[in-house]
Structure formats: structure tokens, C-alpha cells
Prior knowledge:
By secondary structure, the chain is mainly α. The chain has one domain. The chain has 3 helices and no strands. This is HPt domain-containing protein.
Amino acid sequence: xxxxxxxxxxxxxxxxxxxxxxxxxxxxxxxxxxxxxxxxxxxxxxxxxxxxxxxxxxxxxxxxxxxxxxxxxxxxxxx
Length: 79
């Protein structure tokens, strides 16, 4: 979280640097969302391939949902 707070503070830089900082911030948030999805839905614990595929699909759906929520938060924070 400290890394994210530091990155958010960096958004006060000039526009080119601010854009790069925003991209890095969203990448960090996406990494967090990916970790949460992986922890919520374990693919590697399933024995059958079809079970793993279904679990991976659930991870992708959860990741998409979390990413959309993070975008709403970052967009509202930027206003």
C-alpha cells in the first residue's frame, strides 16, 4: 500500500510524467486485482483439466470485475 500511496503522490508531476505515473499506478492496482483473483479461485488445486479451465474462467471474470471497480476508484480520485 505504501508503494501505491507513493505512486499516487507522484501524479502531481508534469503531464508527461503524470501520465506514466498513472499507468504505473493502474498496473500496480491490476497486479493487486490479479493476486486477489488468484487467491479467491485456486486453479492449481483442481485435479481435472476441465475444472482448471472453469476455475481460470472464473478468475478472469473476477479480475475483470475488480479491474472495473479499480478504474472507477482511480477515475473518481483523479477528478
